[in-house]
Specification:
Chain lengths: ~325, ~350
């Protein structure tokens, strides 16, 4: 995965500031699809014509934005106060390294040590090594955004990265673009923006595409770690997770059944997913115009929304296979 | 300009009850615009044709935070619910006006002498408050109906460079649109939407951006939070009075379209108009709803900083207000040059 699509796990891109990762994706895909377009809110819409007799418009969506930070204040000593962009529990980010969109790096400091859960965002700051406000202002500015900074790596067929959510979905889309030379359906690969702040990019891009069926590729919370509090029905390594329900969507049964059948028939490992929190782009797609059939294929991921997310590459492979079958098979509805 | 803010802010118009401000705005712009319509949700839409058929959307919301009569008790006291967001503890001892008959009343809580030490050290919830209109029974309170709107009685005044009053959020924005229209026409055509029901969830905003052809962008004109008297120095103040109108980079409803934001900042620099950024991400505006309309509309919010927003009394700086309108007009003048 890293050998082929490493750039996806290192490019900068936080909600509303997806320019860099989008440019890299666009460069990679533009000769491999029939058309490429960037919409008003920053989603990248790539089209590949299908040749099926009863083809439909099938949209695959994965979001480019990672959760991050935005500078709200620079104090007189050059420390940066910030707000989270997206859901970012404060206790998880203390002492982590971050990188700004212009390459400036910093670490997150805390005023005083406090109990884990009582750490408030306003007690934290980013230290970029500036000695004064003036020095800091030469390096960054108010409104500039940052994301976690870590090197991705693979080990024992697991992938570790700060941005699995949802660059792993983007990587799956890239793999599909590389593999699917003549799909049955008309395929819209949509790399969406602003998912982490309220599934915004998918709302307007699906309005533009107006697909018959929309499938989001995103991470889900793997509930398979020691003494874990139940969050979802999935485990890393047990296959592509076919979403049944989360806080944003109940996937139509006919779409769940269709995906399950494709897995059974083609011996693709899968698990059904019920998630007790969160939502994906599928929610926005489902509620577009007069309503669109939408679902999600999830990659069970450990430590979602932290500096070190981890998934099993077997699940990624299974998801690619399932998407491939979706793209090549007539819908029974 | 200040005069208009006085007129607009003194008008009582809560979410869903915008008729009075609608009438005033109509009166102010009808000689200038091509047509005025009220859409089904209540937004006042006015079109000012320009030299080209390129449109820009100008938005502000007409509604202010207010209260509503929920019940009239047997003893003649009025119970109420908020329409929009309040800190409950700012309400007691405020003078209010109720309903079409403009019945006066005072928001009351239990008197000092009858309150336990525990009660004195905690803030009352809205359900513990009532409005006393001087009626001794439900029958005597018959001038008040369930569902009547309740407004703060605050009246606009100026002191030094500061403007005191209510409803600057967002009558300031309504003024800005009106002044912009009256200073027109421009190269671009203006599609102005004075929206309803923003304070209860951007409701007018969700339906104001459909079917506008050749739309370049939306400029949303707002009143925003200001915390220059409330925040310790080491933390970020939201905005500060006297430092110019504020651009929002990000809030709970939106992330500003970057190209549009940069474009507007350049206009401010070119015209030597001071500006600041809103430096907290709390709150949301119609801009968020508009950005997600159809396949997306490039949108930004420009706001006048309002100290003590969502309260019976707010304060803004005269120069901020004047620069705010100056900047809105400057952006519209240049709008035809904007490219996504």
């Amino acid at each position: 995965m890293l050998k082929k699509y490493g750039f996806i796990f290192t490019e900068f891109g936080t909600s509303g500031r997806e320019d860099k990762v989008r440019d890299s994706i666009e460069k990679y895909v533009k000769t491999k699809v029939d058309s490429v377009e960037v919409d008003v809110n920053g989603s990248l819409i790539c089209f590949k014509k299908g040749n099926g007799k009863n083809k439909k418009k099938l949209m695959f969506a994965a979001h480019m934005d990672a959760i991050g930070f935005i500078i709200t204040h620079i104090d007189k000593n050059g420390f940066l106060r910030f707000s989270a962009v997206g859901y970012q529990p404060s206790y998880r980010i203390v002492s982590k390294q971050v990188i700004f969109e212009n390459g400036i790096r910093g670490v997150i400091g805390i005023e005083k040590d406090e109990d884990f859960k009582s750490i408030a965002e306003k007690k934290l700051y980013i230290d970029i090594g500036a000695n004064s406000k003036e020095e800091a202002e030469k390096m960054v500015e108010i409104g500039m955004t940052a994301i976690m900074y870590n090197n991705p790596f693979e080990q024992n067929n697991k992938l570790f990265s700060s941005y699995l959510d949802d660059r792993i979905g983007c990587a799956i889309l890239l793999e599909l673009i590389d593999n699917l030379k003549q799909p049955y359906h008309d395929i819209y690969y949509v790399f969406t923006s602003q998912e982490e702040v309220g599934v915004r990019g998918a709302k307007t891009s699906s309005y533009k595409v107006e697909p018959d069926v929309g499938i989001a590729l995103d991470v889900t919370v793997a509930s398979d770690t020691p003494e874990v509090e139940f969050a979802s029905s999935t485990s890393a390594g047990k296959g592509a997770a076919i979403k049944v329900m989360d806080r944003g969507i109940i996937v139509p049964k006919k779409l769940v059944d269709h995906m399950v059948n494709l897995c059974e028939k083609n011996k693709i490992s899968y698990q059904k997913e019920i998630l007790t929190m969160g939502a994906t782009d599928a929610m926005a797609i489902q509620q577009t115009k007069g309503g669109i059939i939408a679902g999600t294929i999830s990659i069970p991921t450990r430590y979602v929304h932290s500096a070190n997310e981890m998934c099993d590459l077997n699940d990624v492979e299974a998801s690619v296979k399932l998407c491939t079958k979706l793209a090549e098979t007539e819908f029974p509805f | 300009m200040i005069n208009r803010l006085e007129i607009y802010s003194n008008i009582n118009a809560g979410s869903g009850n915008e008729e009075n401000i609608v009438d005033q705005i109509k009166k102010d712009i009808k000689g200038k615009v091509k047509d005025i319509e009220i859409n089904p949700i209540g937004n006042l839409i006015a079109k000012l044709p320009g030299k080209t058929n390129k449109n820009i959307l100008l938005t502000a919301h007409m509604d202010e935070v207010s209260l509503m009569v929920r019940d009239i008790e047997e003893n003649g006291l009025i119970k109420f619910s908020p329409i929009g967001g309040f800190i409950p503890k700012i309400l007691p001892a405020t003078e209010v006006i109720i309903g079409k008959k403009k019945i006066a009343g005072a928001i009351a809580i239990k008197t000092l002498h009858f309150s336990s030490p525990a009660e004195l050290s905690t803030a009352d919830e809205i359900r513990d408050m009532y409005i006393d209109i001087g009626a001794s029974s439900k029958a005597e309170a018959n001038g008040v109906q369930i569902g009547d709107y309740i407004y703060f009685k605050s009246k606009f005044f100026k002191q030094g460079s500061y403007l005191f009053g209510k409803a600057f959020d967002d009558r300031a924005g309504c003024c800005a649109i009106t002044e912009t229209i009256l200073s027109g026409p421009y190269d671009v055509s203006i599609y102005a939407s004075y929206n309803v029901s923003e304070e209860v969830g951007l409701r007018g905003g969700y339906v104001c951006g459909f079917d506008v052809e050749n739309l370049l962008f939306n400029l949303n004109l707002e009143g925003t939070t200001c915390s220059d008297r409330e925040v310790e120095q080491t933390y970020s103040p939201s905005t500060e009075l006297g430092k110019g109108p504020a651009f929002t980079i990000m809030d709970n409803s939106s992330i500003a379209n970057r190209k549009l934001l940069n474009f507007a900042i350049e206009v401010a620099k070119k015209n030597n108009i001071p500006y600041q950024f809103k430096r907290t991400i709390t709150g949301g505006t119609d801009s968020g709803a508009i950005a997600l309309t159809e396949s997306g509309i490039a949108s930004i919010s420009l706001s006048v900083p309002v100290r003590y927003i969502h309260a019976p009394w707010s304060i803004i700086h005269q120069q901020d207000f004047e620069n705010y309108i100056k900047l809105a007009i400057a952006i519209v003048k240049e709008a035809h040059n904007f490219k996504l």
